[in-house]
Amino acid sequence: MSANGEALVSVRGLKTYYSIRGTFFDRLIGRTGAAVRAVDDVSLELRKGEVLGLVGESGSGKTTLGRTLLGLVPATEGEVVFEDRDITKLHERELRDMRRRMQMVFQDPHASLNPAMTIAQAVGHPLEIHGLVRDKAVARARVAEALERVGLIPAEQFMDKYPSDLSGGQKQRAVIARAIILNPVLLVADEPVSMLDMSVRAKILELMLSLKNDFDLTYLYITHDLATAKFFCDRIAIMYLGRVVEIGPSEAIYDDPKHPYTQALLRAIPEPDPRRTVPRDLPRGEVPDAARPPLGCSFHPRCPRAFEVCGWESRDLKELLERRWAGMEEAGYEAERAAVGPVEPLDEPVTHAELPARGGEVRGILERARESDPAEPFWTGVRRIAETNGHVEVDWYEPVEPRLLPTGSVEVECHLYDEEALAEAGRRRSGIPE
Amino acid sequence: MSGQAVLEVRDLRLWYGTARGSVRAVDGVSLEIDAGDTLGLVGESGCGKTTLGRGILGLLPEGARADGEVLYKGRNLVTMSPRELRRLRGPELGLIFQEPMTRLNPLLRIEDHFRETLEQHESKLTDAEVRRRSLDTLGRMGIPPTRFRQYPHEFSGGMRQRIMIALALVLRPSLLVADEPTTSLDVIVEAQILRILADLKANFDTALLLITHNLGIVAEACDRVAVMYAGQIAEEGPARDVFGEPMHPYTRELLRSTISLDTTELHSIPGAPPNLIDPPSGCHFHPRCPDVMQVCPVRDPVETAPEPERRVLCWLHGPEREIPPGGTARLEREEIAVAEEA
Lengths: 434, 342
Description:
The complex is a heterodimer. Chain A is of the alpha/beta class. Among the domains of chain A are: 1-101 and 185-190 and 219-297 and 404-420, Rossmann fold (3-Layer(aba) Sandwich); 314-396, no CATH class. Chain A has helices at 24-28, 62-69, 92-98, 109-112, 119-129, 136-149, 156-159, 168-180, 198-215, 226-232, 250-255, 260-268, 314-326, 330-340, 361-372, 419-429, and strands at residues 7-19, 35-47, 51-55, 77-82, 85-86, 102-105, 186-190, 218-223, 235-240, 243-249, 352-356, 382-388, 391-396, 404-407, 410-413. In chain A, helix 5 crosses helix 6 and helix 5 runs parallel beside helix 8. Chain B contains eleven helices and twelve strands. The chains are: A alpha/beta, B alpha/beta. Chains A and B meet through helix 8, helix 9, helix 10, helix 12 and helix 13 of A and helix 5, helix 6, helix 7, helix 9 and helix 10 of B.
């Protein structure tokens, strides 16, 4: 396609945190609450004329990143350079001028249109807001032109209708018309087709591709759907818990996914191929809370290939015990739980945990857990289990923070592709002190 | 597969009146599900899938009318009194909804949800039995017993859907209707839930009707599939055969318009499903059908079984004796404008 490598938007070290308000008392004594790290140190470039797919599950921070890019959400740290200006430093008025050049299409076409505005009013609204067209007849002509461009033909038939008179696909076309009426250069499309029926999705994607060619647009396509992204995007960035874990050309990502998370996402897509059955080797659990991310690599608790350096910790032990108990008969579970005691104290992001010893019983439970599933990656991260003073102490290796490193034609943030991390894991495995 | 039909639907019609006329949401549907089998029901929005699912369980909105037979283990649910039907729902007939968030009571612990459900239907159970049954079912869904006393908001979306499934299964129903059970979930969690549903037959021998618009889900999780269009079953058969070699043009076009990892070219079906007050004459799909023939708009199609285990509602598959002379000639289709798209 027409991506020529020149950057339209450069994102560097971008962080967007949402603070969770503490209690009234917290504020009184000046204690700041915790923060949800929605975007946690992301650097990437959006090249002129390309479609960059930002792919992740809900809670990955992809929508927040898209919004921060447009200045709709204030950045906590880092910069977003668009046409030589850092938009995170702009005032609202300057930002408003910039927004003529960058527009957004949202997921839900029903919620994106004001039900009290006719289609002509809604699509022409940006002209009014930016004070671009004073003459009503001229404005109406511009609206008609935009509507016809998105396939709402004849435009006259749609202009005086209300959103409720339109189907989902037609509404999304109107939303796109409103986005292109100011001739933007950048369009951020947040799940533009995921609320639409299968048979309509293709039409909207086709429209977006033809608009891109006609108007020389650059797209940031935000989605959870790897199948549409594969068709639609030149490059793909996979996000997990606020970070880009893999980024590269689409062919490379789909033909040879590197990160275990990317591999899992691709395997989980239900394909209308009668020879396939439901995959069994799926990552367990769900995206964790971004206010309390796992230590080390955020994906390690779910990762089938995690090892010594990935950031194993106390909370992983809690989950391991809970998973074990979920599969047990009541009597066995009751006995083990009584011995271990409450698991809530384990729910801390630390690499040291203490359990009651109960005369060797708890140690026995841990040993049985290990024997029942020796391949479980969790055990690679355990440095020491020892019994002292009526306690079982469990220690894990210190986490190594993953880095986004070039690997082949992509960049990936995973210790499996980091020579230094692999060497460190080797040292740990053979018991050489750090 | 035991081969014993748990559910037999025969010529079911469901309609409700509106100011503009009566909506024939389900128009002469017949299908069967055996114990331990999963039937996928697919089609675009507005084809009557949800109405059919609800109608089978007798959960239609007020003002709706039903005609035909819904035989559950031989008993007709359509003519059953509301009281008898209520007694069957839960222990015999289960339903899993689309949005797990809105179906759990935020003020009740998970434990209380299970207690209420079990006490309602099996009042003789002791507290210990209630607890054992609940924990056992939750455990099979991967919910640890340590979380039994927590509230719904303490669980993630995927966990809540597992709890909903466990709540439906704790009464061990023989028939379960799942209406888009994974639509609001992420792809990995969706696959986890589908695996649980696929394991139902091994664990519970439950007959499952899985309603979805996602053909990929049906291909992976269902034994059979029924493709619904405008209130009718366009095609039905083993999922493998139907997706491998679709007989109805609608099935074929739906498969082609699905964007998957193998998609190299976009394809879509022109137009939108018709309104069900006044659907097109003859075959309801004829205005959108690429293979439309002279006979299609003038005569209602007749169901045929071109292969064992399969049936299709399309004139392409005959019966030839019912097609008037010249009926198989192509009919030029009018262009469908965006004005009519979905």
